[in-house]
Specification:
The structure is a single chain. By secondary structure, this protein is α+β, with helices and mostly antiparallel strands. It is built from 13 helices and 16 strands. It has an 8-stranded mixed beta sheet with strand order 3-2-8-9-10-11-1-12, with helices on both faces. Strand 15 and strand 16 form a beta hairpin. It holds the Pfam family Fer4_22. This is Sulfite reductase subunit A. Keywords: Iron, Iron-sulfur, Metal-binding.
């Protein structure tokens, strides 16, 4: 399909077309002090006219003054919470007439449509797919939600200071399949979206919208915006060469750089909760006082928790140093051995939401410097 133009004033028609098709639309909304992903009922729910200022341990919303719908970058939370709920009931059991009866829990997965998915986040979803869909232990709840997912991706035309997807080769331009791909353009004369249909159901949605053919100038302006975001990252202090990271980390397991970060890290797990690819979970069993009812719950967990690596005899990773090293080395090195690609997509959330301002790119560059002969 040839690229088309959707006028900004018609964006709500896209949202309503998705809702009329039975999708629960999730997109970026302003929740007081942050942009988060939540349900979208109309274009009025979108965080229009706001941009995010992000740095180490810092996040602030500022009015953009230009009316862009996607002038911000990634939201504070990740899409994973809608595909892999933070906490869910696995089964209930009860004792009745001396018999133990198990009641497995099932759910009717909603048809989800994600509006405003960035390229790095599409890569993050692909990484979670490797864990929950394509691994030998398939997660049926995730798989069911993922199967019906409709994605409306958005090319980035601005990078936050914490973004480093250009280093991880995951953005800012959308490179993975998406049902629709939008590029927002605001010039002196007009405000519009360059839109491409990436699937049959995406093209079916587009067929209901008032589109017009894109001119070569409009396509060039969209491309210029994407390259501007790339340039912001490539000329920034967080840009680095990601080639050979796995080998670098494997040969620096005893680097003094781990001691420095351990002195600052609180083991609070903020980075893993904000991360769009972290997938660890724990299982908890509960009973009532009578002993007649029991439940099993699954909930997100983190390798920064002291109990996470507990086995008979105690925890394997007892120090903050060992836990941070495990997290970063798994994310950037052993993940490649496990799944064939890095576990980091360069979204920068772990930098912004670390309360003590630990920066994974600074940590990596410190190890690179220490590794030099």
């Amino acid at each position: 399909m040839r690229a088309a133009i959707l006028a900004a004033e018609h964006l709500d028609l896209l949202i309503q077309a998705l809702r009329d098709s039975g999708y629960l639309v999730i997109g970026p909304v302003r929740d007081e002090l942050a942009i988060v992903y939540d349900e979208i009922r109309s274009v009025r729910d979108l965080s229009q006219g706001w941009l995010d200022e992000q740095e180490k341990g810092h996040y602030r919303l500022l009015p953009s003054g230009d009316g862009r719908y996607f002038g911000h970058t990634v939201a504070a939370n990740a899409w994973k919470k809608f595909l892999n709920p933070p906490k869910r009931l696995l089964w209930r059991a009860r004792q009745h007439n001396g018999q133990l009866q198990f009641m497995p829990q099932s759910e009717d997965a909603p048809q989800l449509a994600f509006l405003g998915v960035r390229s790095c986040e599409l890569h993050a979803i692909e990484i979670q797919d490797a864990v929950f869909v394509h691994d030998q232990h398939r997660d049926e709840v995730y798989s069911q939600r993922r199967q019906s997912l409709f994605t409306v991706a958005v090319n980035c035309t601005r990078a936050a200071a914490t973004c480093f997807c250009a280093s991880m080769n995951t953005g800012p331009e959308v490179t993975l399949p998406s049902d629709l791909v939008l590029t927002e353009v605001l010039d002196d004369a007009s405000h519009y979206f360059l839109v491409d249909g990436g699937s049959e159901r995406g093209r079916n949605i587009l067929a209901t919208l008032p589109l017009r053919a894109a001119t070569s100038k409009q396509q060039a302006l969209a491309k210029k915006g994407i390259e501007s975001a790339r340039q912001q990252m490539q000329t920034g202090p967080r840009f680095f060469d990601s080639a050979g990271i796995k080998e670098l980390l494997y040969r620096n397991l005893e680097s003094p750089a781990w001691d420095e970060v351990a002195d600052r890290c609180l083991s609070c797990a903020n980075c893993t909760l904000a991360c769009p690819t972290c997938f660890c979970s724990a299982v908890e069993d509960t009973t009532d006082l009578t002993g007649e009812h029991a439940e099993r719950w699954q909930q997100w967990d983190s390798c920064f928790n002291g109990e996470f690596s507990y086995i008979h005899g105690g925890s394997v990773r007892q120090t903050t140093r060992s836990r941070y090293r495990q997290w970063m080395t798994h994310k950037l090195a052993s993940w490649i051995d496990q799944f064939g690609h890095s576990g980091c997509v360069g979204c920068g959330r772990c930098i912004s939401w670390c309360p003590v301002g630990i920066d994974i790119t600074e940590q990596l560059q410190a190890i690179q410097q220490a590794d030099k002969p």
